[in-house]
Design brief:
The chain is mostly beta strands and 1893 residues long. It is built from 24 helices and 121 strands.
Length: 1893
Amino acid sequence: MGSWSLRFLAGLGLLAVLLTCCSSQVNSCLTARSGTCSDCLQAGVGCAYCSEEDFGFPRCDLHEKILAHGCNAAYVIKATSKQTIERNEAINMNLQRSQVSPQEVRMTFLPGETRELDVNVFAPTKGPLDLYILMDFSNSMKDDLDNLKKMGNKLATVVQEISSDYTIGFGKFVDKVIEPQTDMRPDKLKQPWPDSDSPFSFKNVIPLIKDVNSFTAKLQKERISGNLDAPEGGFDAILQAAVCKEIGWREGSTHLLVFSTESAFHYEADGANVLAGILPRNDEACHLDENGVYIQATKQDYPSIPTLVRVLGNHNIIPIFAVTNHSYMYYLKLKEYFPIAEIGVLQEDSSNILEIMRDAFVSIQSKMSIRADNRPKAFGAQFLDSSNKEVRYGAFNFKPGEIGKFKVKLTAQQKHGEQPVCKVDPGDKEGTIKVKPTTFDSAVNVKASILCETCDCEKTPTLKAKRCNGKGNLVCGKCLCDDGWAGAFCNCSKTSGSTKDQCIGPGMTESCSGRGDCQACGTCVCYNPDQYEGPYCQYDKTQCQRVAGILCNDRGSCVMGRCACSEGWEGTACECSKSNETCLDNKGKICGGRGKCVCGSCQCPDTGSGIALSPTCEPNFEFLRGVCEETRKCVQCKAWKTGEKKDEAKCKDCLVEVIMVDELKERGEVLDSCRFVDEDNDCTYEYTVETSKDPTNTKLLAEVLKKRDCPAASLLWLLPLILFLLLLLALLLLCCWKYCACCTSCWQNCLALLPCCRGGRMVGFKEDEYLLRQSQLTSNHLNTPMVRTGPPKGTDVVRWKVKDNVHRVPSHPRELMQPNPDEMIQFPISLRLNRLFSENLSRPESKDAEQLRQEVADNLNEVYKQIPEAQKVQQTLFRLQKNAGKRGNYTIMDTVLSAPRRAYPDIVKLTEKNVQSGNFGDLKVVPGYYTVATDREAAGAVEFQEDVEMVDVHVPLFVKDDDDDKKQLKVEARDVPLGIATIAKRFVNITIIKEHATSIFSFLQPKYTYSRKDGVAHIPISREIIEDGRTQVTYTTQDLSAKNKKDYMSVQGDLSYAPGETEKIVPVRLLELSEKDGFLEDKPIKQFVMDLSNPRQGAKLGRYPRTTVTIADTQEPSVMMFKKGNQNFSTLDQTYPIPVVRSRNEDSPATVKWRTKKSQCFDLSGSLKFAPGETEKNIVIEPFPGSAQPETFQLELYDPSTNAVVGERKNTVVNITEEPRSPEIAQMQSKGYVSPRGTTPGGRLLPPGNLKAKATGPRNIRLNWDPPPGNPVGYKVKYWIYGDPEKDAKVLDVRTPQAELTNLLPFCDYETRVCAYNSMGDGPDTNIVSCQTLEDAPGEPGRLAFNVISPTVTQLSWAEPAETNGDITAYEVIYTPIDDEMKPVGGAKKVKIDNPKKRMLLIENLQSAQTYQYKVRAQNSVGWGPFRDATINLASQPSRPMSIPIIPDVPIVDAEAGDEYDSYLMYSNDVLKSPTSSKTPSVSGDDYMSNGRWEQNFLFPGGSTTRNLSASSSPMSTLSSNYKGGAGGSFTTEMHTTYMTGPGSPRRRDMIGGGIHTTEVLMRKRSENRGYTDENIRDSIVIGDDKFPDLNARLSPGVPDTPSRLVFSALGPTALKVSWQEPHCEKDVLGYCVLYQLLNGGETKRLNVTNPAENSVVIHDLLPNHSYLFKVKAQSQEGWGPEREGVITIESAVDPKSPLSPMPGSPFTLSTPSAPGPLVFTALSPDSLQLTWEKPRKPNGDILSYRVTCEQLHGGGDMRSFNVSGNNAETSLTVPNLTENVPYKFKVQAQTTQGFGPEREGIITIESQDGGALSQYNSQSVTRRDVFQMSPEMTTRTNVSHTMINDPYFSDGMMMTQFTETGSMVSRQVTREVVQRNVTGASTVTKRMFYES
């Protein structure tokens, strides 16, 4: 057999193995084959053990396989689980209490087994109710309390509506009575506000009672209280109200807790308690004294959110949050964490609290969330509805008063973690699971346990059994041999030798068939027991017979070379079912009574009738025309002697037997019932068809009804009368038409007078409703048809309107939050222009579209300027409106007008007025059509022209990201202002269902262009994966101007994406032009569209659901480009002629525009026109006489005419040099062109042309260029990172006009130049070409940092990867408990953080004293990077937590939470941002970050202070600045602010109110985070106070944003290139302005850049070693945008005699290393620490050593120096002999051969455990020190001193001093090390954090 055949057979064998592996299921019994009988039974469900002594197969296997192997059933041992209902009382619907059935169930499970239980539940309509009102008693709620006191009777009425058996209770709360939450001065403790009670945490005022009058009377005695900070201690109150029996919660009742407040809340570890010295966690116990007061408030922390969710769930309490608008969003997020909770918007005075309670209870009654409480860890639970579909979170919609049904599915795990389930703790594998609705007390108690059976035969072994030759014990049929003996019967000594011959079976040549090892006694041990078996491993379990490639038809298993079939199956491949069910026909007969059932299918006899039989031997008429149609002619001829077969010869051939009957059988008893009209006599006859019961009779039986239904006698005499009446009517209509011919309305009125037309015309919507899925929407509009009935003559205009979210009730929270009428919103407006549509208008870039767009803007702006504050229209587009009647080819204009929301009615009226007149200024519009929309409603009109019966209404759908999961819109036909029609069907409802997408499909671009020569258009369809899996989407093409089968071949189909697949290509074949079309001169544009639709498996359509494909016909446009890539002229030349050439289609005129770029002397533009036949023309530039300067600039060709395109050389470089004009050039100039030269006059080569760069990978860029004229020897390619000085470029020498750059940085911008060289030297460089490398997987994240809050709570943070290699999209955190050997001792938990800016995670409820391993990795578009890991035991850290305020937007996870917490993350800012007073939030917005870096917020008693905030301002403030020039280029600023208040002075109201008057020192990176190591990108410093505008304030629409990146490149000691990136702007940027001046003062110079395409300037004549401040801003027609600032210093050697002049030829950049990485301190003992730092990001050479200095911060002691050698990525130093409680300053410098680089500085204090005792009434000190390391060249010092005598937050004599020192170096990698020290009470806490900017 040939090698090809052998390979083919091998491939088939491999395929068979793979199919077997794929189709087989995991057999857990195999893992226990070598174990004991008990191990087998405990391996999993279905496992059995064979104890038969002579059994020769593996004793442990699935039960059916054991029997198939031949084990006697009497010897099979298996475990059996049970399910018993121990108590099942039927639900009594007469009892008004919640009930479940059954009540007690006992279940035992085998490992891996699943059981289901049917459960019935009943919730009464008015069951028992316990209502506890918990109210905020802070002073701001005074009016709320007064209103509640007045509502006693109304409260009773509302509660009686809800329940007839109720109790009511009342509790109040404020906050912990301790600083900083409460003012602790004695007078304030006694009475914080006038007429108020002392502050308290929580008090149970009125336990749950039934007497409403008593409740009201007790409530009248209550007075308000107060506290300091805005967040309240409501969590303490909720927990006490839940766990304390004193509240009076009753069993069997619904428990509601109404929580009323207008403030946010404190929660565990949010910083306030840490400042107050409260450290212990909440113990979740009741601590009320005899007066109902919470007494442990000041001794333990607030509860966490997961704790509250768990506690309320355990006590069946449903929270109702009645909160004001100010805090609504905090509680809306909090509500999502509870299985069932409600929220309502409270009026400022709580006047609507009763309505909130009523609505909340109705909502709660409509929901039911099922839970499985107290579930052991080894069990899983699912909840199924009546259709066996899983319901997430157990949320069912059961109606009160009715019995609801559901199923609970419990599954026993086979393993818990890595351990078999039978070896875990008993408490983890057995227990009582309470299955119940969240609102119920009653539950189904499921006593579940996992059976870990043992075999009785193991207890009675046969010692020294004869079967085991006396050398072993017989246990459960198996010999367990003594030491030294082996074999199935212990008959072989391990010391005796064995030969392989014993392992060779009959007819075999190899030992163990070559598939195993030969052991002692001739026993074969197969290599792969899962595949091979038998005493000689001779059987392959994959080689049994197959059906359709499936082993044993998947109905059995392969045993010893043959299929052992499952029960009910037989055959050599288990292909035959023993059941006859598959052979039953529709009547339940086997094979229709005609055939035999063989192997599960019918064998039918040959009928000979020509009628096909079905698979069940029934007559099959589906392949014909139906039984009635097939038998009709035969029944006609045999019964009535009529029809086509009435001839006797034809009738004999019929295989139908006819029987005449008086009554027909029922339709269900026969094959079919038929009814026909006889065409011969118009009689109707009926009959039935059935098959004969005689199997030998092959004819059909037709029973025909004897009585036919024939028509009566002829009525022909009526015909003349009918004709006469019709003629009379026609005459009447003709007269009416003649009379009213002059007036259409008369004609319409005449018709209306006729009896038949009395109703006139009617209009209305065609459809009643639409059901749409948001994921499948391809547009934000819906075309719904409106129809007209009645006389079609005349015109009708119908006005319509639509409103969004009509499904929301008036009390819906979103409806109560009314929009701001002054808010600027966009109003989409549509008009029908009195202009026919053309294809050019569909292309926004075309000239026709641009001209019409300008005309529309001019006229609409003029009209809408009557609207106050209206802005100019924008985003104008043109389209066609399908199904628009006779106006279908007119142009529809869509535009957007920005105006205040309140202007909507005025805009509608103004639009309608102008549409009726037919004019918008000078713009002609068609009356009868318009649309005006907002973001929630729209109005418009459509027109029915004469003879038009249907038009489409273009309805906006208002699709938004925050839409409800199911929303409804209502479209209404309002009236008919023009015409006589009346409205019939007035409304149409639109329902949009919003699914959460798993994938998003989209085209990559909205349009593509392909040439016919391409032959195929390859259209990519991308998929964004949100949840991975399989999914599908449908694609289809549609004609526009291109026609199917003429220009292209239409395609449609479904694309299936496998898991992980993100893109597929759809090929569309393009056809050649026909001979006829090829001769056409004006060929129209050919376009077709491809649409995406019907996404499946939870996917939805994305940004581009449609793409337009343009087919470019060959030989169509002219190609115009510069003749050369470079032009060379002299400053003496009078003109600069630049030739432009044209090719192709030269017989038609063509034009192209040109403009200069990057020129300091020329800012020119113009147009170049080619006449027919012209192929070359010159652009002539005339410099001003005597003003020509040497420079290099560019010319660009752009905007060609419609019949032309710009070729490859769209740019040319013009070099103006000081060389004398050559005679040749002068001669050529006189002729109007420049002769091409191979070299410059000096013999040097010209620069290469057409340089192109393309990234081919993450680390590769490919370059190619056109060689210059002449004979270059080679080329030098220079390339460098964008922003680096060009002098640092790497040079690559190549011999061909192409190069491959390798070993580059991923996702990095590079700049390149190329020059040619010959024997005369290097020629000039090309212009710079930029290119960005592709993305690569990210590197590992930066160092992990832990902030230990408590022994069970830590905050994990990490730095962005040093090599992001792209845009980071997500992070993944995994934390696992481990032992001392780093092995896992529990399950790992994963948390995915989709927001890459949130690089922190707060983890709660960790196991105390347990070591955890934490791993973090980053993801970008390429994939996941490597992990960075760290290990920490929180218990080994200092017992006190660090004084840290909560970081905004830190994800929170609960390490001990159950499955219900795995689906979401909590974010601390959702519950942190608290109003500083009762009305106004202290933190506005969510943007706490600067270019992806944290700006951390600190909560202090006075309100909120950010880390970048220098201090609070006051009546006395001084600011002094000192600028020092010189070689160092230093910059120093000092700011001193002093606050003094004392007796008699007014208290600072800004501090009392909780606000802060701030002076900001903001430090932000002024470059994009792209992974550059650029020493030329500076940081900028903005110093300002609150009188300056907010830097983050929203800009007016159309005003440019700040330029997004500012980059400096030194071109020499005195020359600098400043470049930036174009900012975002809704309108076109018109130009830029660059301002610069010396940092120490001087004249401000301004450069205007009028060409928006330019984004850089070159500045000469700067002073060396001087710092300059640069500002760049952009301008649009709306004005100037904000500035981007930067500071730069060019350093170089200077002439000693002239310090302002550089030394010629001297270097002008630093070559010393940059600063080392961030300093990390680790305390080793009270007097020593370890200092660690990273290698400088830009070492500029090998690091020789580091110099470390250490000195006391406030003086005292000598400075100590250390020299540390090494060039490692990370370096450490141990520093001994330090003094505790003394702050030290450390500095680290790196040294290379060029010297020492800048210092990295850090401050640290090793503090004692007690920290010293500081009395509250003595001098106290709080010191905060922030060190922002930025370099020695720029320093800022801020000193702020406070002396507050009567300040409410500090005791007498307290001093707070803050120092802020800042340094900056010229580096991208800037690190801030923040060391904070707070002294509170008797303890001192040190906090250290790292930030990168």
